[in-house]
Structures are given as structure tokens and as C-alpha cells.
Design goal:
- With about 725 residues, this protein is of the alpha+beta class.
- Helices cover about 15% and strands about 35% of the residues.
- The strands form 11 sheets. An 8-stranded parallel barrel has the order 27-28-29-30-31-32-33-34. The chain has a 6-stranded antiparallel beta sheet with strand order 4-3-5-11-8-9, with no helix packed on it. A 5-stranded mixed beta sheet has the order 1-23-22-17-18, with no helix packed on it.
- α3 (about 345-355) packs parallel to α4 (about 370-380) and α8 (about 540-555) runs parallel beside α9 (about 600-610).
- It is globular, with a radius of gyration of 28 Å.
- It starts with a helix and ends in a 16-residue tail after the last helix.
- The model is unreliable at about 1-15 and about 710-715 (pLDDT under 50).
């Protein structure tokens, strides 16, 4: 038997490799921005001959106007006066080699905002509705091989009621081809390329333990030759090094000329190396090949992380039977002056910052994000919440598009082991006659596509039993106690109340946070934020206090199965002007340009990260009005020593968590004061230092008034 298996492996590899070819199609594009005097359904050469600008893909035309101040105050009635949403064109000349005439040729777009129509030589090739999912169009029958071909992509990011999101209120839908384009060439017998732009293979897993794990590889195969074909279908599971074979299956199949064909390779993997999140993100490599006449004519490679997620009600997340903390952050994809047109460099930067803070789980909100970032989460070990952009408003016309985008989200990302839950909606309410049945439909669709993962819907009301809740596996609650209503410490009574009244519900605190404009600084703040308006003060010290109190409470309640800070980074809100800045939400722990980490960032890093943290807060409140003050230190390396102008202050109290040290008896000298903190761990010394300037005159220039408690629900801005 051992000899037979060895010979089989040798024979299987004794083949010619002529598999699919995937190359970047990002270069050589020209761009023309609308609005256009006319917009013919089939383009003409006269229209294409005007002035065009050379651009690089990824590209967006809204990287500036969706992030800056309004052109005039009439923007509420006419948003076009503030930023451009509408039509634009991209074109490129492509000369395919004659050798491709007997192949299939596709273009795969990873993201176009938001409706795209593709033309080849003035003929319609395909259309896609939705800014955040990938899509594929086949060009084979439209191309002239050995000649120049004109490819035109017509893009339109005008909000419309039948494409989610239906508006730009919570975030901006940046226009353009803002993610990569790939040219894919395959044989006429191939693993499906046009199955909602998925990989064409789906790896499901069951009964995962450290002894055995069951995996099934479902393979979809197309045949456009016009006759039946005999093929060998081979799936090989490699160890993480990509060389050593863990398991292998081979079957002889007949692929008819009609319809799409479905095949399965089932594995029982003994002694699996499990994917254990950040602790051990072990990935197998699954290679599926079609072999015909001794040649590999197609091949797809996918990751396999063997794991089992279980959210235990009132307890928390268990990964492969081991409880793991769900320290969560949210991420919008846009960057200052880049919009959503990002490269791998920006994605890597964001993931590095989220890893630095000590996060274990990420909510990619409120839409499908780049394929690269999901793949990186697999290899880093983050636990991921992925969702569609069904947010904020109900139009009653979005049903089919919501279903389409959920199908795309699931099929395109099915094989990523990091994803544990599919998000169905975020803060969509009336008319409930649309929201409720659509949520039920989306839940059923998700369970049909993927019965192995959870679903979640999110409410902006702090009521577990509010209308439109509880039509998914998990109820997410977005609430900002002290910001949009009440005061910060109201979270304490709320969480105790829901624990008692809804003990059998799976509940996640899906968003919480407070805005911080680094130009707004104040020593003392209350428990009510100065929200909301352009002339309001978004003090960093309020955001710091907000997170100190809220995380202190969240950390004591495993009833909240996970919590997600809104947001890791400041982001663009083109229809909002608040806190002295146009078009920006400043709830981020890090500034829009990723250059400055605010005080609350270090609060979470001290609480979550295993890296040593010693940090003095209020470092930007340099001009002090109170001679007698307190000093706050975050330290996860033990009790710190505080020195003010060289004099040690020994008395301190512990705040809301064990890393929270508050020195209350501090007296400043008039003029410059040097504040130093020191600590050591395992023989290594750590220190931090800031400078405060005290003057009695500072009291005259600081606003002493504090906002009063308000009531009201979260409006999502």
C-alpha cells in the first residue's frame, strides 16, 4: 500500500503544467470625469476621443472632495455642491495574443464604486451593482485577438435606492476603480471564475478536534468546449511550508458540455494542526487542479485553517474549545487624501496598528473590504466580523441587491478561517415591514450559503427586544452612553439590566466610542460629551474618560460576548460637519492620516496588549489652569513611580482597571513642570515624560462650562 501511494503521488506530479494565468491589469488606464452632456448606452469613438487623464489603479475621484469642507452652505439641498457623485469613464487599450483565441479571458474587478458597466470595442460586456464586492466579466467572445481592443469602464457612484448603501450619510461611497483589476486566462475547462467572483472551490469543515478534522472541498467546474471531457480532479492539502503533503484526493470525472458541474473531495485529517488565532495561526494550503491528457489545465490555491468557533451565551468565545478574549476594534478602509484607493502598504499599516493595540478581533465595517486584508487576518490570527453595507436607511428597493452583495461576500470569502460571523445589517429601522422580512431573508440566505458560521444584525437602540432585533444568531448593540444621550456611566445600569432580563440571548456590544479632535484640549470634563455640531468641542480628555469608564465596565461582563470600539481610525463622513472639522468622524483612536495615536489608544494597549506600556495621559493639555491637579498613568508593568519636577509623588489610587493609576495629590509650580513616570519589569527600565505649563491666567482662556445630560437615541454620525 505504501508503495502504491508513493507511485500515485509521483504519477500525479508527472504532468505538464499549463494552468490559469492571472496578471495585474492595473496599468495603462485613462480617466474622464463627468458629468457628461450625453451618456449613450453604447459608446462612440467621438465620445472616447476627448481629453483623458492618465491614472493608476487603484483610483478614486473623491479622495479630496469627500474629505474636506463644503463648497457652500447649500450642500444639504444639493450635495453635488460639496462633492462629486456621478458618472466617470476609464478606458484602456489591450492587445491579446493570438494564442489566447482558444482560451477563456476574464477581467476581475476587486472593487468599483459603485455601479460599473464594462464595454469591449463598444459592445456591452457586463454590469455590476455594489461598491465593495468583486465581480468578473468574460471578454472572450468580444476580443479581437492579435489586434488592439478598446476596453471602457463606465462608473457611477450616484446614491440610488436599489443599491446598498443607499446614501452617503454614515460614510462616503468613493467613486472609481479603487481596488485592483486582474486579467485571468483559463482553459475552456476550468474551475469556475464567474461564480460571484469566488475562487470556485469551497472548503467546509466539521467535527474539528486536535485528533481529527473533517474537511470537504466543493469544486465547481465549467466546460465551454461543446463536448464532454474526461478529466482528473486532484486536491492536495499541503502543510504551512507549502511542500509537505498532509493529504490528497484524486478522482476521475466526466465533464459534460452543459451546465456547471459540482464535485466533492472529502478528507478526514488526522492529528490536524489547528488554527488558534493570534496564538498560532497555522494555515494549510489547498491546491485543486484539473488535469487533462497529462497536463494541468487549471489550478486554484486556497487557505485552510482548521478551527471551530463557539460563542457561549453569557460566557464568551471559544476557539477549538479554548476561551479567547474578544478585544474588538472596527475599521473603515479610507485614508486621509487617499480615500478608499489603497495599496497593500496602507492595509498592512492598519493591521499593524490594530495588532499593536492588542486587538484580537476586528469588525470590518460597514462593507466588504479588500481580499488582501482578509487573507492577512488569516495569517496573523485575527478573528473577523465581515458584513455587507445594508446600513442606516431603508429604501424598500434594496432587497435584490442586498441578497446579491451578501452572496458575494460569503462566496468570495468562504475559505478565510479568520471569519466567524456574517453581518446582515447595521442600524436599519423603519419601515419595519421591509426591515424585518429582509433581515429574515438575509439570515436564511447566509445559512443556506454557509451553515457553519454565525449571523449578526445590529441595532442603534440599547434595547435587546427592540423591533427588528433578534432575527439573526447574534444581536449587536451600538450605543454611545454619554455621547448621543445620557452619561458615560449609564452603561453600568444598562448591562446589568440586560443580563437579568435576557440571559439566553447572544449579545455583542458592537459599537461604542467618543469623538476626539486633538486641537480641542481641556483638563476637566464631565460625563456628557459636547455633541453634536460644528461649533462643539470634541475634547480628547472626554474620549479618554469615556473609554476608561466604559471598558472598565465591559471588562467585568462576559455577558457581552465581544465588544468593538468605534473606531480604530478617524474616517470620512462627507455629509457631516462636527467638532470643528468638516467631513470627518473623529471617534478613531488614531488620526485619519494614521500619524497620531490618541490617549485612548494607549488605554486599550495597556489593558489588552502583552507589550509593556507606561504612558502619561493629557500630554497635549500642556497649558494648565489648575495648580492642584491629578496625573493619570497607564501601566501594565506594575505600579509606576511618578516624579513632578524631580519630586516623587507616592500616593495613588487604582482606577477602573488594574492598569489605571491615578495620582491625585499633585501640585504644579508656576511655569514649566516636568512630569516623569518610571517603572521596570524583569530588570528593564521604562519611562515616559511630558511637560505642563501652569499659570493662573490659563483659567481665563479655558471654557469652564460643561455640557448637560441629554436624552436621545444614537443617530449614527
Amino acid at each position: 500500500m505504501k508503495i502504491f501511494v508513493h507511485l500515485l503521488v509521483v504519477l500525479c506530479f508527472s504532468v505538464t503544467v499549463s494552468a490559469r494565468n492571472v496578471v495585474s491589469f492595473n496599468d495603462g488606464w485613462s480617466f474622464k470625469k463627468g458629468p457628461f452632456d450625453s451618456s449613450p448606452s453604447v459608446l462612440n469613438s467621438g465620445f472616447l476621443s476627448g481629453k483623458w487623464d492618465k491614472v493608476s489603479i487603484p483610483h478614486t475621484w473623491n479622495n479630496k472632495d469627500m474629505q474636506t469642507e463644503m463648497a457652500n452652505m447649500d450642500w444639504i439641498r444639493n450635495p453635488q455642491e460639496r462633492f462629486y457623485t456621478g458618472e466617470a469613464m476609464y478606458k484602456k487599450t489591450y492587445t491579446p495574443d493570438q494564442s489566447l483565441k482558444d482560451k477563456r479571458v476574464f477581467l476581475r474587478f476587486e472593487g468599483v464604486g459603485s455601479v460599473a458597466k464594462i464595454y469591449v470595442n463598444n459592445k456591452f460586456a457586463g454590469k455590476h451593482m455594489g461598491a465593495y464586492s468583486a465581480f468578473t466579466v468574460e471578454l472572450s467572445s468580444l476580443l479581437k485577438f492579435g489586434e488592439k481592443n478598446e476596453i471602457v469602464v463606465k462608473v457611477d457612484n450616484t446614491p440610488r435606492p436599489d443599491v446598498i448603501p443607499v446614501n452617503n450619510i454614515l460614510f462616503g461611497v468613493y467613486g472609481g476603480i479603487y481596488r485592483d483589476i486582474s486579467l485571468i486566462v483559463t482553459d475552456k475547462v476550468n474551475i469556475a471564475v464567474t461564480d460571484y467572483a469566488s475562487p470556485g472551490i469551497y472548503i467546509s469543515q466539521e467535527n474539528v478536534t486536535n485528533k481529527t478534522a473533517e474537511a470537504n472541498v466543493k469544486i465547481k467546474v465549467d466546460n465551454t468546449t461543446g463536448t464532454k471531457r474526461n478529466i482528473r480532479l486532484v486536491t492536495t492539502i499541503y502543510e504551512m511550508d507549502g511542500k509537505k503533503i498532509k493529504d490528497r484526493k484524486e478522482t476521475q470525472e466526466i465533464v459534460g458540455p452543459q451546465g456547471r458541474h459540482f464535485f466533492n473531495h472529502k478528507f478526514v485529517i488526522s492529528k490536524p494542526h489547528l488554527w488558534q488565532g493570534l496564538e498560532d495561526p497555522y494555515l494549510y494550503k489547498v491546491v485543486t487542479q484539473i488535469i487533462a491528457d497529462g497536463t494541468v489545465i487549471d489550478e486554484v490555491v486556497q487557505p485552510l485553517g482548521l478551527r471551530h468557533f463557539e460563542l457561549k451565551t453569557g460566557d464568551g468565545m471559544y476557539l477549538n474549545g479554548k476561551k479567547v478574549p474578544m478585544y474588538g476594534v472596527c475599521r473603515h478602509q479610507d485614508w486621509w487624501e487617499l480615500g478608499s484607493a489603497l495599496t497593500r502598504k496602507e492595509h498592512d499599516t492598519d493591521l499593524a496598528i490594530m495588532k499593536e493595540i492588542g486587538a484580537t478581533t476586528i469588525r470590518f465595517a460597514h462593507y466588504q473590504q479588500a481580499e488582501y486584508i482578509y487573507a492577512k487576518c488569516d495569517s496573523i490570527g485575527f478573528i473577523v466580523w465581515a458584513e455587507i453595507p445594508f446600513v442606516n436607511r431603508v429604501s424598500t428597493s434594496e432587497t435584490e441587491n442586498a441578497k446579491q452583495q451578501l452572496t458575494e461576500l460569503i462566496r468570495q470569502n468562504y475559505n478565510h478561517p479568520s471569519i466567524y460571523v456574517w453581518g446582515l445589517h447595521n442600524e436599519v429601522y423603519t419601515p419595519f415591514e421591509q426591515t424585518i422580512p429582509l433581515t429574515v431573508t438575509l439570515h436564511d440566505l447566509a445559512k443556506s450559503e454557509d451553515p457553519y458560521r454565525y449571523t449578526v444584525s445590529v441595532s442603534g437602540y440599547n434595547k435587546i427586544d427592540a423591533t427588528a432585533n433578534n432575527y439573526a444568531d447574534i444581536q449587536g448593540i451600538n450605543h454611545y452612553f454619554g455621547w448621543y444621550g445620557g452619561k458615560i456611566s449609564d452603561i453600568k445600569g444598562w448591562v446589568k439590566d440586560v443580563e437579568q432580563k435576557f440571559p439566553d440571548h447572544k449579545v455583542i456590544f458592537s459599537e461604542y466610542g467618543g469623538e476626539a479632535n486633538l486641537d480641542h484640549q481641556k483638563e476637566e470634563v464631565g460625563e456628557v460629551g459636547d455633541c453634536c455640531g460644528f461649533d462643539k468641542k470634541y475634547y480628547e480628555s472626554f474620549a479618554t474618560k469615556f473609554h476608561e469608564i466604559q471598558w472598565g465596565e465591559i471588562s467585568q461582563h462576559p455577558y457581552l460576548l465581544a465588544s468593538y470600539i468605534w473606531n480604530t481610525f478617524d474616517f470620512g463622513t462627507p455629509l457631516s460637519s462636527q467638532g470643528g472639522v468638516h467631513s470627518r468622524n473623529m471617534k478613531g483612536l488614531v488620526t485619519f492620516d494614521r500619524k497620531t495615536k490618541k490617549d485612548p489608544f494607549y488605554w486599550y494597549k495597556a489593558n489588552w496588549s502583552k507589550e509593556p506600556v507606561l504612558y502619561l495621559t493629557q500630554r497635549r493639555v500642556t497649558e494648565r489652569e489648575n495648580q492642584n491637579t491629578s496625573v493619570t498613568v497607564y501601566s501594565n508593568i506594575g505600579a509606576p513611580k511618578l516624579f513632578v519636577n524631580g519630586n516623587e509623588i507616592k500616593e495613588f489610587s487604582i482606577g477602573t482597571t488594574p492598569v489605571h493609576f491615578i495620582f491625585n495629590e499633585v501640585k504644579l509650580e508656576e511655569g514649566e513642570n516636568i512630569i516623569e513616570v518610571k517603572a521596570d519589569r524583569a530588570g528593564k527600565a521604562y519611562e515616559d515624560r511630558i511637560v505642563w505649563n501652569y499659570s493662573p491666567e490659563n483659567k481665563m482662556v479655558q471654557d469652564d462650562s460643561l455640557p448637560q445630560e441629554r436624552t436621545g437615541e444614537h443617530i449614527g454620525l
